[in-house]
């Protein structure tokens, strides 16, 4: 009995006899499957039957205008060309993607973070939100994916729990690694910055995970979210459901609100040291079957600036560059040419020319490097790096980072032969030259002038050495004459008196007058009063010959106001003590005479003929009152 018939024995109207003819049978389906699996030639499709014309339809008693369109012939299943292609035709994966860490053991340079996560998993003290920050290419997003695998791993037997060493074989590990796990949602905040995008997350966190232990949201470049989006996320971020974990990654953590930072467990991923990067790149080259020189890998690691991704991209380019000549070896010369770096031997030659004062050789080296395509700014950076290494070797005692015996001997020789002051001055001059080359309209000319200036300043003694040299000259110099040629005569005091003969009480009285605001009176008393006799309420004085005015009333009023007593002030014709101004001039002249006749100053004058010691007349409050040299 035909199963297609109904209870009355009739066939349904849609069951057309021609349908069995159009549908492929089991043999045809198997043939199509065999062709798809093994890549056999495609079967030639039968030519479609020609559609009936209007006359033929009319003869059949059908109207052409009501004729149904002819059914399309069944098309054979297309055979994918990718399956028929050989395995070698797979698209190339760059090293940065191919060697992305799949376990925490493969994550280099972040041991502290891995240890913290391992302890948190063992003690079941998992935070609800993690924040990974650091420079580009140190593993922020990779770490977030590893955490997702560690939290959702169930082990090969399906009975495992959270672990710092995910198996990589269970379905959650494989799905997360391939980026297709339904419960691990990765979002790029740079393209989803608004409140609506965050609202979708808030609505979705209410539902439990479909198949994983935790529903995990990985938000990359989270600092790109808008302020309103951050505010909308705060409540959910602070109190998420138990089955939800947030993993944030950012390169600019300072742009995140403090309210977000306080709700996350923060991990600062460090820059990868250059030696560790070089070792990692050597491992990658061994895996790729590529030979590479240690110096070439060190150059790549230095150019990466602590970023694994940047270094792998440069290494990828270096491998492609090395294959051009058929040797297949990544050499230092080829990496240097590719990056436009200055040769280390050339750097050592430049330093030798600078320290030995060989100007023509210096200009010749710079011209040859520029003709080879090395930028002047790269030359300056190379010299700065070499100077830094010499200074470090001087402190450490050896050049531990040297890649060849010749380089190590040169660096250690300069470290022993140069003084610390010379190295620091060389660094300062190179730093100034670097800024000049960077901003100059003609970098080559700026580099030449900067290096020539450094060469001429390299043999100049530092201030400490100059002082020691002057002291040696002073020790060998004969005794200096008592008088200074061309010097002005010091003011003389009245006979029979010395500066110590003036009673300190007179100086105190003048200061009291000045303190009550009588500045003019105090100045008059300092310049015009030579004390003859000073007692309680009594002052007898005389004036210097240059002053003729009567100041008795002015002095009496100032003393009475300052002391509150009545004073008897008389001007007499007698010898008096020097005025306070005359005492100061005598002391100043004596100090200047002692300075000029000191052995060190005599040695300085002998070493620098024509030098002159001048007085700084500016007020002391703005840096004046000092003695300076002028030539």
Description:
With 631 residues, the protein is of the alpha/beta class. Helices cover 49% and strands 9% of the residues. It has helices at residues 17-22, 26-38, 54-59, 81-84, 95-98, 111-122, 140-152, 171-177, 195-204, 227-238, 258-261, 274-288, 294-304, 308-322, 332-339, 344-356, 359-371, 376-396, 405-417, 420-439, 443-457, 463-476, 504-515, 519-528, 552-563, 580-596, 599-607; strands at 129-133, 184-188, 215-220, 244-250, 265-268, 291-292, 329-330, 530-535, 538-542, 568-571, 612-615, 627-630. The chain has a five-stranded parallel β-sheet, with helices on one face. It has a three-stranded mixed β-sheet with strand order 8-9-10, covered by helices on one side. Strands 6-7 form a two-stranded parallel ribbon. Helix 9 packs parallel to helix 10, helix 12 (274-288) packs across helix 13 (294-304) and helix 22 crosses helix 27. The longest helix has 21 residues, at 376-396. The radius of gyration is 46 Å and the shape is elongated. The relative contact order is 0.05.
């Amino acid at each position: 009995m035909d199963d297609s018939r109904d209870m009355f024995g009739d066939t349904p109207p849609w069951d057309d006899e021609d349908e069995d003819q159009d549908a492929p049978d089991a043999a045809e389906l198997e043939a199509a499957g065999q062709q798809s699996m093994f890549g056999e030639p495609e079967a030639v499709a039968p030519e479609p039957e020609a559609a009936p014309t209007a006359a033929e339809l009319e003869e059949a008693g059908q109207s052409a205008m009501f004729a149904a369109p002819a059914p399309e012939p069944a098309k054979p299943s297309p055979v994918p060309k990718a399956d028929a292609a050989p395995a070698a035709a797979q698209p190339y994966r760059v090293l940065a993607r191919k060697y992305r860490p799949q376990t925490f053991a493969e994550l280099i340079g972040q041991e502290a973070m891995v240890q913290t996560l391992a302890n948190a998993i063992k003690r079941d003290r998992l935070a609800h939100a993690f924040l990974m920050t650091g420079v580009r290419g140190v593993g922020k997003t990779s770490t977030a994916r590893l955490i997702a695998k560690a939290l959702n791993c169930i082990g090969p037997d399906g009975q495992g729990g959270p672990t710092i060493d995910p198996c990589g074989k269970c379905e959650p590990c494989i799905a997360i690694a391939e980026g297709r796990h339904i419960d691990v949602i990765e979002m790029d905040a740079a393209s989803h910055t608004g409140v609506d995008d965050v609202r979708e997350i808030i609505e979705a966190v209410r539902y439990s995970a479909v198949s994983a232990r935790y529903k995990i949201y990985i938000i990359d470049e989270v600092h790109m979210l808008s302020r309103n989006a951050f505010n909308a996320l705060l409540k959910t971020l602070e109190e998420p459901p138990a089955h939800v974990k947030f993993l944030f990654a950012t390169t600019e953590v300072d742009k995140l609100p403090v309210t977000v930072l306080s709700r996350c467990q923060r991990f600062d991923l460090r820059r990868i040291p250059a030696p560790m990067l070089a070792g990692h790149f050597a491992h990658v080259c061994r895996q790729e079957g590529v030979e590479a020189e240690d110096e070439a890998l060190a150059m790549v690691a230095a150019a990466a600036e602590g970023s694994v991704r940047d270094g792998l991209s440069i290494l990828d380019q270096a491998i492609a560059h090395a294959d051009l000549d058929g040797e297949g070896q990544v050499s230092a010369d080829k990496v240097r040419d590719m990056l436009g770096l200055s040769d280390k031997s050339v750097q050592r030659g430049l330093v030798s020319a600078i320290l030995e004062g060989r100007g023509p050789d210096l200009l010749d080296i710079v011209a040859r490097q520029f003709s080879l395509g090395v930028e002047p700014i790269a030359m300056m950076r190379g010299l700065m790096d070499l100077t830094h290494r010499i200074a470090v070797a001087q402190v450490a005692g050896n050049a531990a980072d040297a890649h060849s015996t010749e380089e190590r001997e040169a660096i250690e020789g300069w470290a022993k032969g140069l003084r610390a002051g010379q190295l620091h001055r060389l660094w300062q001059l190179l730093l100034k030259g670097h800024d000049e080359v960077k901003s100059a309209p003609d970098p080559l000319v700026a580099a030449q002038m900067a290096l020539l200036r450094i060469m001429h300043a390299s043999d100049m003694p530092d201030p400490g050495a100059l002082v020691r040299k002057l002291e040696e000259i002073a020790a060998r110099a004969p005794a200096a004459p008592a008088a200074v040629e061309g010097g002005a005569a010091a003011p003389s005091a009245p006979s029979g008196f010395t500066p110590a003969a003036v009673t300190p009480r007179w100086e105190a009285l003048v200061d009291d007058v000045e303190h009550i605001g009588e500045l003019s009176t105090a100045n008059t008393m300092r310049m015009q009063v030579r004390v003859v006799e000073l007692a309680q309420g009594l002052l007898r004085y005389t004036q210097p010959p240059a002053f003729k005015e009567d100041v008795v009333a002015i002095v009496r009023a100032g003393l009475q106001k300052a002391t509150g007593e009545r004073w008897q002030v008389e001007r007499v014709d007698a010898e008096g003590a020097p005025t306070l101004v005359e005492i100061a001039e005598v002391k100043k002249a004596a100090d200047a005479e002692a300075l000029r006749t000191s052995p060190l100053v005599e040695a300085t004058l002998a070493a620098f003929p024509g030098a002159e010691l001048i007085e700084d007349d500016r007020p002391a409050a703005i840096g004046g009152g000092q003695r300076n040299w002028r030539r």
